[in-house]
Design a protein that fits this description.
Pfam families: DUF5995. The chain is mainly α. It is built from eleven helices and no strands.
């Protein structure tokens, strides 16, 4: 599908989530997170929180279409960007924990697609005018991520082990991943916005390769993370439709 506005993006994500619930497809994990973020971005647009609401609608539409294109390419013939092939290729793997599927989606969509969408929305010198609205999305992401990570904790009770072995104390795992990825995405967006076609192609290729390498590291970590993931996997829910449904309603859950 090709979205024409943010409403289409939300409808498309809802369709992917609904199909995933019916089929037990783990693609619904990240799609549920992404749908809720997009709903909150649309709310912020309607509330006038962005400097340029129509521009953010276009931005979100470009961003969403990158995901839809990658998803369609994978379903069609297992093609698409390298980082998305790594991500979608792990969906049938019952040994990959829920939070890893979410981080893999974040890595591909923000590590590759976000900068491309930003540069397409605001090419050349226009990219600098996008910065404040780009950064404002961090606040929206943080709110949704806290809710989704709490929802993951409901179905993955030993998730806290990753904080312990990662040495980050109480820092939220998903929020940590997203914020770091978005910092690099802004740098790449500025770079892409000022390049010619050949330069952009080379930069996008480099971004894709890097995100694919990170995906492999996320999927197959070493050190103390590996035994922690084995414990997490052994105790978390394996009812994929139920997990997707729970994650997709994370923003409706009362705050702890």
């Amino acid at each position: 599908m090709a979205a024409e506005n943010i409403d289409d993006v939300i409808a498309g994500l809802a369709e992917i989530v609904a199909r995933a619930v019916q089929t037990g497809d783990r693609v619904g994990y990240f799609a549920a997170l992404y749908r809720q973020v997009t709903v909150e971005v649309r709310r912020a647009i309607h509330e006038g929180r962005f400097d340029d609401g129509p521009r953010m609608d276009r931005f979100d539409t470009h961003f969403g279409n990158r995901y839809f294109e990658a998803h369609a390419a994978w379903r069609r013939d297992r093609s698409g960007p390298r980082c998305w092939r790594e991500t979608f290729g792990l969906l049938p793997d019952g040994d990959t924990v829920i939070v890893a599927h979410l981080i893999l989606g974040v890595n591909a969509h923000i590590g590759l697609d976000l900068a491309v969408a930003a540069a397409r929305t605001s090419p050349g010198a226009e990219i600098q005018a996008l910065r404040r609205d780009f950064l404002l999305i961090n606040d929206i992401l943080a709110r949704v991520v806290l809710a989704v990570q709490a929802a993951v904790g409901d179905v993955s009770p030993l998730l806290w082990l990753l904080d312990q072995v990662g040495g980050r104390g109480d820092e939220q795992i998903l929020d940590f991943s997203i914020r770091r990825s978005r910092e690099e995405a802004w740098h790449n967006a500025v770079l892409l916005a000022g390049q010619d076609d050949a330069g952009r192609e080379a930069t996008i290729e480099r971004m894709d390769v890097r995100a694919a390498v990170l995906a492999r590291l996320i999927a197959r970590p070493g050190g103390l993370v590996r035994p922690a993931l084995e414990l997490i996997r052994a105790t978390e829910s394996h009812d994929v439709p139920a997990v997707i449904t729970h994650l997709d309603h994370a923003m409706e859950q009362p705050a702890a």
